[in-house]
Specification:
With about 300 residues, this protein is an alpha+beta fold. Helices cover about 30% and strands about 30% of the residues. α1 runs parallel beside α3, α3 crosses α4 and α8 packs across α9.
């Protein structure tokens, strides 16, 4: 018996930050949009009583594989199953390419929980799986159903938003390590952002106000990321990639999450052409074209 589920990478259409909560976690508000790119989780009966988990092309120390392990263990714990007696084989593949940095850790959690729950006949609702996913990794709850959503708290509280029309997306990142590249992560961005005045930080509210119009060209001016001015100041290469995406045909481009990926939005059907122009420009970048999706695809 084999059970499989598809999960999707995502981009942050907005990301704003609030105060540190009593539990030590920072309040976050972000609008997430799922992409066609993603992962496929396949669960089958194992050859022994244990749990065998592999991800094609990723080593045991990969953070995304660690998220997959923790998701499986969290479900086993919830169901009262000893992992050594589960008797399942879990294999993961992906088509993320360069976009492997765009939500790979969270993209795998939802499909893994769905496939494993179905394979073992545990009968959890999607709402229950979202709650579990939110305890595994930030934004993990989003990956259960994808689409377009508002994530709040540290990313575990999900509010479904109206689906948006399909749009072309190009994901780009620097092609080689550069000075400070190891610091383009959320922890470092949080540290630097904390030293900046609250007034300069963007808000998600304008985006939420315009989303019901379902018009990407009206939505684009409202896209924002609190980390963007921080990391663009520190690493001008990232700002340069954003500008280059616009020059190659995107009508907007922004930092995704805590970097280092930049996403550009373009008219659907032009994403391959934009990515080709970007690669032909001679810039030291990697790029992959994709599109958004309106709802979960299994």
């Amino acid at each position: 018996m084999t059970t499989s589920a598809r999960g999707h990478a995502n981009i942050h259409l907005s990301l704003d930050l609030g105060a540190v909560r009593a539990d030590g976690l920072r309040e976050v508000r972000t609008v997430l949009q799922a992409l066609e790119l993603g992962v496929r989780v396949t669960v089958s009966d194992g050859e022994h009583e244990g749990t065998d988990l592999t991800w094609a092309g990723r080593g045991n120390a990969d953070p995304a594989l660690d998220s997959a392990r923790r998701a499986a263990l969290r479900l086993f714990d919830e169901a009262g199953i000893w992992p050594g007696e589960a008797g399942v084989k879990i294999h993961i593949t992906d088509d993320l390419g360069v976009a492997g940095r765009v939500g790979a850790r969270s993209a795998v959690v939802g499909p893994l929980l769905r496939a494993l729950d179905q394979h073992l006949g545990l009968g959890h609702s999607l709402e229950a799986l979202e709650k579990l996913a939110g305890t595994v990794v930030a934004e993990g709850a989003f990956s259960v159903r994808n689409g377009t959503s508002l994530a709040q708290g540290p990313g575990e509280a999900i509010t479904r938003l109206p689906s948006l029309p399909i749009i072309g997306v190009v994901i780009a990142e620097p092609r080689f390590p550069y000075l400070g590249a190891d610091r383009t992560d959320t922890a470092f961005a949080f540290y630097d952002l904390a030293r900046r005045p609250r007034a300069v930080r963007p808000s998600t509210d304008p985006l939420l106000g315009v989303l019901p119009r379902r018009d990407w060209h009206r939505i684009a001016p409202m896209l924002s990321n609190a980390f963007e001015p921080v990391l663009f100041d520190l690493f001008p290469m990232l700002a340069g990639i954003s500008l280059l995406l616009r020059e190659c045909g995107c009508f907007t481009a922004h930092l995704d999450g805590g970097g280092p990926c930049i996403y550009g939005l373009c008219d659907v059907g032009s994403e391959v052409k934009v990515a080709r122009h970007l690669l032909d420009s001679g810039a030291a970048v990697r790029a992959v074209p994709t599109r958004t999706i309106a709802e979960r695809e299994t």
